[in-house]
Amino acid sequence: MMTAVIYTIRHVGGGLGHSFYEYLLKAWLMSDKTDEEGKKMYYDALQAIETNLMRKSSGGLTYIAEWKGGLLEHKMGHLTCFAGGMIALGADGAPSDKTGHQMEQAAEIARTCHESYARTALKLGPEAFRFDGGVEAIATRQNEKYFILRPEVIETYMYMWRFTHDPKYREWGWEAVQALEQHCKVEGGYSGVRDVYASTPNHDDVQQSFYLAETLKYLYLLFSDDDHLPFDHWVFNTEAHPLPVIRKDKTDRPNEVE
């Protein structure tokens, strides 16, 4: 258990290990909530994240910082924005006195990630954004200002919509659609941009495979009815592939993917 907690502190923010934490939760959900070890490891890890990494800016934005070399770096990566959806997904299984708190955390992270989009010229989020030097939710280094069609913010919007039906999540998703169409659509598909703070996009001429597999899929689900791939039958892995919940009694079969 200590290993899981240490790993949480070091790597929850980036692509090196963030999927580990959602898979602890999703292993429990896929097992029809029988994998108690996965469940315990997830909630222990989430507590470690809250204690050691989660902070609130002077402007009231909740973010998940990164632990590097024994120091807390007040930077949140676009990849880390998946955590809002993960926390919302796990809130229902938390102890009753924690459910509301975790949903509040999820909503606050979703808001922070939306602000990282809203505070750019192109209304697309940077690869990483900082909370130091008098700035909040803004990339300050040139190598963090790019956008490569990542899905994590849209993913969190989708989960938050499913669990709250607050219309702002669909509104935020539609803002992203409009920005993608205006600034990323090119003759051969969609392209990332090198600087989201520039007044006009400088395309990198790369359409990442996860744009089709994840970003557009989460947008589709955000605007679909809840009974399309419902969460009580399906669990999405970190690449947005739907995996069926394995029912204990085998009689309640998951919906077929149409």
Automatic annotation (TrEMBL):
GO biological process per UniProt: carbohydrate metabolic process
Recorded superkingdom: Eukaryota
Pfam families, per the entry: Glyco_hydro_47 (PF01532)
InterPro entries: 6hp_glycosidase-like_sf, Glyco_hydro_47, Glycosyl_Hydrolase_47, Seven-hairpin_glycosidases
Pathway in which the depicted protein is active: Protein modification; protein glycosylation
Binding residue positions for Ca(2+): 238
Keyword tags: Calcium, Disulfide bond, Hydrolase, Metal-binding
Cystines in this chain: 81-113
GO MF assignments: calcium ion binding; mannosyl-oligosaccharide 1,2-alpha-mannosidase activity
One cellular-component annotation, GO: Golgi membrane
Cofactor: Ca(2+)
Family per similarity comment: Belongs to the glycosyl hydrolase 47 family.
Protein name: Mannosyl-oligosaccharide 1,2-alpha-mannosidase IA-like protein
Source organism: Lates japonicus (Japanese lates)
